[in-house]
Structure formats: structure tokens, C-alpha cells
Amino acid sequence: MKKYMITLLIVLAFFTNPSSSKAAEVQWDGAQVVKGQTGKMTFTKDVKVYKKNANGTYSSMTVKRNNYFRVYDIEKYDNKTFYWMSSGYRVQATDLVVFKKVPLNIRASLYDNPAYININRQGYSYGQHYQLDSTFYNKISIGENLYYSYYDADGGSIEVYIDGSDIRIFETTKRDKGLYMLTADAQVSGGPMNGAGGIGWTKGTALHSLGLEINGYLWANEGYIPVTLIQPVKKQGKRYIRYGVSAAATKGNPKELKRFDEVILLTENDTTAWIEMGKYIVYRKKF
Which of 96, 157, 186, 233 has the lowest CB atom count within 10 Å? Predict the structure, then answer.
């Protein structure tokens, strides 16, 4: 009898104590909001919508007036706005479309570790990652929209409001901190989005991971890089310094390297080598 009672208690505990608070259903404007949803839209009359298939052909379906559809992504460029429905259907904003954005804080409640990224291509902020713990901001808050303030060079407070529909939320994933190397020539971007501006770096360059992956990009001191183009740095064996040189250290003061000093090579590109010498990881012109 005791065995059955223990089993029953375990089953009851399983059903009454969900493992994650994010599993709870979120309601807004009379409907359930799902993770990844940006808003909802209806149409003022029956219309036909289209999607482009992988083989280049197009499929269509007719959507009925006043039926609502979830919007999962938004594109804004060339003074045009496009809404992405499920299954790849894309609709341009016109007077036939009634769009309502889900407040940013409600969307964020569905994520464990949300990252807020600007997806509006019509400004200079496309791809910008708004870091809630950044010391750049005087204040930053998430409500219906994103608000932050910062001090200008004269000490004045500048306030900025970003419309919630300009923000896409991604779940962050923990990555190891430390050095990663590029496995091919690549652009290190200013934000974790395809098309965000950046600088080209060469194969072998070391990047200093901050320990997070966002939208398939590693967040590093140098910027954001697709995780498909990196791998952890591994020690490649002993090397000896050919000429004395002062090398910059990743932490602390520059390190003086003397001729014939023994070091461990980590990675290198056409101009720079990253080496380990005792507790130091330093870089210098190739030796």
C-alpha cells in the first residue's frame, strides 16, 4: 500500500510543479501568444497571400476577412513593411492589413534569457543588440516598447524610444568564454543579424568570446561572428621568438619578449600570432 501511495505522490508532484515558468500560457488581446510571435493581423476583406517556394515557384492561399493570423517576423526597408505569417507567407502592409504588435515585455516573458535585436533596416540601428546590463545606458527598460537613455559628451541625458515592432527577440545560449579562431575569412559584424555592418577579418584570427550565442552568432569582444565559422583555439606546440619585441597582452600591460623566448602558439593569421607565455596570452607580428 505504501508503494502505491508514494507513486501517486510522485505523479501528483509532476503535474502540479511544472519544471519551467515559461511553459505557462500567455494571453493577450483575447488570444494566446506563442514564443517567436511579434504581433497579430487581420484583413479588412478576403485577400490572397503568397509565399515563394524553394524551387522558385509561388503558392497562394485565400485568407478571410476579420480572421486573425500570427505575425512571426517583420521586415522594414525602402519605406515598406512586410509581415511574415506562418508557413512562409509574406504580406506587405497596406490599408487592407490591420496589424497589432504584441507588447515587448509580454513577448519577452516567453524567453528564459532574451536578447533584443533591432531589425529595422530603414535606420542606422539594424542589428543593434540592446544589452540590459550595459554601462553605456543611463537607463534601459522593456515595456510595450524599448526605452533607454544615455549621457552625451556634454553630460546631457538623451532619451530614445524604439518601437517594439522594430525589435526581434532571440534566446541566448551559453558558450565557453576564451579564445576562438576563424576557420575562414569572414566579416565580424556589429550585431547578430545577417546584413549588419562589420569588418572583414582573415582566417586564423582569434576572437575573445563573451560566453553567449545569439541567433547563431558568437558574441565576442570584437563583434558577432557566425558560430559555423569558428572553433575553439587549441595549443599548436612550442615556438621560439626570433627577434625581441614588445607584445600587447589581452590583460594587463604589454609583455616584453626576448629573442629565443619559448612560447606556445595558439593561432595566427597573415599578420598576427596569438601566443601563450606562462600566464599571459599575447599577440604580436608573426615570428
Answer: 157
Tell me how long the chain is: 287
Query: Under a CB-based contact definition with an 8 Å cutoff, are residues 170 and 224 in contact?
Result: no
60/46 Cα distance (integer angstroms): 13
Please answer whether residues 80 and 92 qualify as being in contact, where contact means their C-beta atoms are separated by less than 8 angstroms. Answer: yes
Range 238-285: architecture per CATH: Roll (2.30)
Ramachandran category for residue 237: left, alpha or beta (phi over 0 → left; psi -120 to 50 → alpha): left
Residue closest to 268 by CA, chosen among 181, 188, 179: 181
Distance in angstroms (rounded) separating the CA atoms of residues 40 and 66: 11
The dihedral through the CA atoms of 119, 196, 124, 51 has a sign that is negative
pLDDT digit string, tens, across residues 217-252: 999 999 999 999 999 998 888 988 887 777 877 777
Cα gap 146→163, rounded to integer Å: 7
Q: How far apart are CA 220 and CA 229, in angstroms?
A: 13
Would you say 196 and 190 are in contact if contact means Cβ atoms under 8 Å apart? yes
Could you give the CA distance from residue 133 to residue 219 in angstroms, rounded to a whole number? 15
Whether the CB-CB separation of 61 and 48 falls below 8 Å is answered with yes
The tens digit of pLDDT for each residue in 254-284 reads 888 888 888 888 888 888 888 888 766 776 6
